[in-house]
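Example with several molecule types.
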Amino acid sequence: MAEEGTFSYDAMGFNSNLDVASMAASLYYNLMNMHLEGRDQAACKMFRNELPWFISIVDSIFLKNCAEIEETIDADASLTSIQKEEIIYRLQIGEFSRLLLRSGYLPKPDIRIHYNAPWDVPKDLKRLHFKGRRDVSETAKKLLEEEDGVQ
Amino acid sequence: MEYNEEWEPLFEEDYKLDFIVDPFSFMRYRVFDLNEAWDAFIKGFRGNGKSSVALSCCLLLNPRLLDMSPAKALERCWCFTTEERNEKARQVKRGDVLAFDEQGTQKGGSSYKWQDATNQDYADEKQLDRTDGVINLGISLDEMRVLKRIRQLYRVEIYPEVKLSNRDTKGNGMAIDCIVREVVENPFGDTENERFKKKYFNYAPKGRISRVRIPHPPADIWQEYSRRREEFKESLRDEAAPMVRGSRQELFQQAAGF
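Resulting structure tokens for the full complex:
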């Protein structure tokens, strides 16, 4: 929450002026096309260039995990710089996908809540049938008897 | 690699499944802690399990009922007629749940009898009882049978969808899968459909609670409920009998040329 003079404010939403979901979708299609054309290096560069556009949804988990990936892969002396870049890119794409999931742009599953009853739940209908039911035809019988009397 | 039929996401923490607040805890929080009015309307076909869902809802929302005898518990939380409801509404305390079964019958807030003084009292009282810390449950076949002033006050709608046997619940006893939706009001909407939207409860952004599995109420409480329902049915029959008799006599008289 930020303070400005005598009032304070916080962000509530972005009124859909910039649609992050469609931005992410177009990024995905562009990257896919580049890979299909065999331009993997260009795809790595493009992902890095496009990432700042998503800064409004970036969280600390994403930054921490991306930094960890870079550090771990960079420390591996057996890899060439091109290999390193490619592996980092592939792992960071996964992190980006997780970021979209956390922020609600990728689908989450519908769930079913099961309530655990603190009572003894009946297993079948045996104990549930109501025995004390009056004969339904009683009222009808009474009616007919009265009507007979009138006639 | 071991295979498991259960869904096990790789990064479960991303789904925020560990922060789930169930709809009933949510309702309790809004009513008892924030002093709001969150009443639920349970609707569905005949024999679909509306009443058993409502009984279980009463017990889940107010677990104190489980400490009482079935007769006392039902006396406290259940009613069939508008008069009974108005009387009990004066006795309930903060934290209680009051279920009004068979709404829309002649004696139970029927929309056909909207000018009836008892129904008007009921609607007035319900309009004013918004911060009394009591959750009201309404049960009916469909909402149009109920007074308009009443049906517009419900904020949660519950539809019992599938009855489940003990086998279906893997030995956890009988239960009913329900769709639970929140009625969200948009005061700026022009039409009725725009004004009231019925949305699923969410556990996280874009993560819906699509079904709620509600266990069957205890057998003794169900028996007590069945007894009361039978009594109510008999009372309706007894009331209808003189009317039927009257109309038959009129027919006899007409036929005889009086």
